[in-house]
Amino acid sequence: MRAQFVFSEIGVGLRRNLTMTFAVIVSVAISLALLGGALLAGQQVNQMKGYWYDKVQVSIYLCNKTDAATAPACARGAVTGQQKREIKADLEKMRVVDKVYYESSEQAFKHYKEQFPDSPLAPSLTPDQMQESYRVKLSDPEKFEVVSTAFSGRQGVHSVQDQKDLLEDLFNLLSGMNRAALFLMALMLIVAGLLIVNTVRVSAFSRRRETGIMRLVGASSFYIQIPFIMEAAVAGLLGGLLACGMLMSGKYFLIDQWLREQIPLINFIGWDSVLKVLPLVLAVGVIMPAFAAFLALRKYLRV
Amino acid sequence: MIRFDNVSKRYPKQNHPALRDVSLEIERGEFVFLVGSSGSGKSTFLRLLLREERASEGQVHVLGKDLNRLSNWKVPHMRRQLGTVFQDFRLLPNKTVGENVAFALEVIGKPRGQIRKTVPEVLDLVGLGGKDDRMPGELSGGEQQRVAIARAFVNRPMLLIADEPTGNLDPQTSVGIMKLLDRINRTGTTVVMATHDQQIVDQMRKRVIELEKGRLVRDQSRGVYGYQH
């Protein structure tokens, strides 16, 4: 394999079809940026869900020492061991309750640290400031009210929270946007694929003299096809790099510069998540066009 | 070198076969003219040799290989032992003479050192020594055909297939090309040449194979062109 020969052929091919190459690069870039964006949005949702979101529907937070001063429900002080045993026993007696988990303050502290690693509160926080809680999985997720009325205001209970209530609307919105992004991505990928097929067709036609001679003198079909496939792969790689640039500037300008200041409470995805998505974006950017070119060659190039 | 055993070739959607029941043998080192009017099956004959087509019936052996049974991925290797020359030269107009010849070696992955050494040698052999850097467009038809022959011969093939190589050339230039092909033949390369050129066939007095409507109608050593237009 003479690498120099192949690379000069690729350069010639890409320049000959400059407008088409440009269209391929842009459509690949847009579809991959949408793919990356959808993946990152998924990660954002997972990050916001935290440890308990998908496991339980109801959280019963119990009073700790510091709550006595701040929360009226906890005026009588921290929850006692006796109260905890009663609450647990009553929960397990209820029909709608499927499963009861207990989260100690140490565990709560650990989960908090995992979810908000760089929260400004984290350094000053200690495990005994966290509330113990019972996390309840319902057999019927809609029956939150039953648990809520039974335990709100009870001795030692700080509050009862419907886990879904808080974030469900936001998540629904995000997943809807996600689906739209994936749909658009699929559409753009099809457009990119068709553009590539067309590029290969034009390219095969304008190089038919060369490929005809290559065939006659006994060049292997791999050798004949590789410039076309590499042409598509290089265009795809450029599109992939463009998509990476779009994702990184999205992270920087949209999240870091804007959203983080607008909504400081949400823990946004970090650079590590973005950097993990980029190799995938590049790989799809190279492999998909190369494969499309390979399929097109079977139709438009006799070897 | 070449053996046809009861070879027929039918193209889809055509009533008459392009070749019917052709059997013949061509030995190593022979020079063979293939004659016949247009549509007689000459091109099909050559395409079968090159394995551009497969025989519908019968067997085609070239260089000791049964081409019907040769798998597709082995065809390029088989073609490296053949050289091909056409009426329309088929040179790359944007490459120099030297690059055109080198192209045939580059695309089969020959090392650069070898290419640098062989290309001038073969250009000398075809009488174009020192014209490496000229563009095909600057050359006469006869010279262009010499470039094509150089490209076909640069890999030292066992068999040279020529499809009307003098079809676009004036009689005097044609004689030059035939002398060159004869010289190549004398190095031991088998030459199969399809032609309409009566004068050349009559002059050379080589074996003549005549096809008519796909049938082999004459196979004559030291033959002449033999039929009137």
UniProtKB/TrEMBL annotation, chain A:
Domain FtsX extracellular, chain residue ranges per copy: 56-160
Q: Name one GO cellular component term.
A: plasma membrane
For the ABC3 transporter permease C-terminal domain, which residue ranges apply?
183-299
- GO biological process terms, semicolon-separated: cell division
What is the superkingdom listed in this entry's lineage? Bacteria
Q: Which Gene3D superfamilies match?
A: 3.30.70.3040
Compartments (UniProt record): Cell membrane
Q: Which InterPro entries match?
A: ABC3_permease_C, FtsX, FtsX_actino, FtsX_ECD
Q: How does it sit in the membrane?
A: Multi-pass membrane protein
Q: Does the keyword Cell division apply?
A: yes
From which residue to which does the signal peptide run?
none
Record field: transmembrane: 21-42, 180-201, 222-248, 277-297
Q: Known Pfam families for this protein?
A: FtsX, FtsX_ECD
**Record key words, sorted:** Cell cycle, Cell division, Cell membrane, Membrane, Transmembrane, Transmembrane helix
User: Assembly and partners?
Assistant: Forms a membrane-associated complex with FtsE.
Which family is this protein grouped under? Belongs to the ABC-4 integral membrane protein family. FtsX subfamily.
Q: What is the annotated role of this protein in its UniProt record?
A: Part of the ABC transporter FtsEX involved in cellular division.
Entry protein name: Cell division protein FtsX
- Organism field: Streptomyces alkaliterrae
Automatic annotation (TrEMBL), chain B:
Which Pfam families has this protein been placed in? ABC_tran
Keyword Membrane annotated: yes
Its taxonomic placement starts with: Bacteria, Bacillati, Actinomycetota, Actinomycetes, Kitasatosporales
Q: What is this protein called?
A: Cell division ATP-binding protein FtsE
Record-annotated ABC transporter domain positions: 2-228
Listed GO CC annotations: plasma membrane
Q: Which NCBIfam families match?
A: FtsE (TIGR02673)
Q: Where in the cell is it found?
A: Cell membrane
Q: How does it sit in the membrane?
A: Peripheral membrane protein
State the function annotated in the UniProt record: Part of the ABC transporter FtsEX involved in cellular division. Has ATPase activity.
The GO terms describing molecular function are: ATP binding; ATP hydrolysis activity; transmembrane transporter activity
Family, as annotated: Belongs to the ABC transporter superfamily.
Q: Which organism is it from?
A: Streptomyces alkaliterrae
User: How does this chain assemble?
Assistant: Homodimer. Forms a membrane-associated complex with FtsX.
User: Which keywords does this Swiss-Prot/TrEMBL entry list?
Assistant: ATP-binding, Cell cycle, Cell division, Cell membrane, Membrane, Nucleotide-binding
A single Gene Ontology biological process assigned to it is:
cell division
Quote the InterPro entries the UniProt record gives. AAA+_ATPase (IPR003593), ABC_transporter-like_ATP-bd (IPR003439), ABC_transporter-like_CS (IPR017871), ABC_transpr_LolD-like (IPR015854), Cell_div_FtsE (IPR005286), P-loop_NTPase (IPR027417)
